[in-house]
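#struct-help
A.M.: can someone run this one for me? Single chain, 143 residues.
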Amino acid sequence: MANSSFTAQILRSVFFKKATGKAGRYASNGARLFELAKKVIAKSQQKGFREGMAEAQGQVQLLVRLVRAYASGEYRKLPWKSLLSVVGVLIYFVSPIDFIPDFLPIVGLTDDLALVFWLFRTLNDDLTDFSQWEKENKTINIG
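D.P.: on it. Structure tokens below:
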């Protein structure tokens, strides 16, 4: 979806740096992780995000389930660095003011989705491990 130079610009942006700066505080606090998951779900259910973005919707839901499983203590096999990347991307995702502000119809989600797709490329093994664990345990619900 997004080319690497666009994604690189986002990763270098002050907005992403701010999000990743908050990631450690969120990652070490289960209540904050659950609250972040709720915000991500709310944003992903907005009309502009749902329409024509089935792949992204599925990826965001997987990230929410991962964050919830980590916050509850059910899944702790995720390396700390990977958790910080996930949390940083999700903080960026819910922020209305970022590289491309969310209030711009359709275009406002471009940077958010570029980061989600980047995260899945970057953490493919960790996310595959979680998916496998989830299939074996079937204990985490998105709802």
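A.M.: thanks! Residues 6 and 114 are 8 Å apart (CA to CA).
D.P.: also worth noting: The mean pLDDT is 88.
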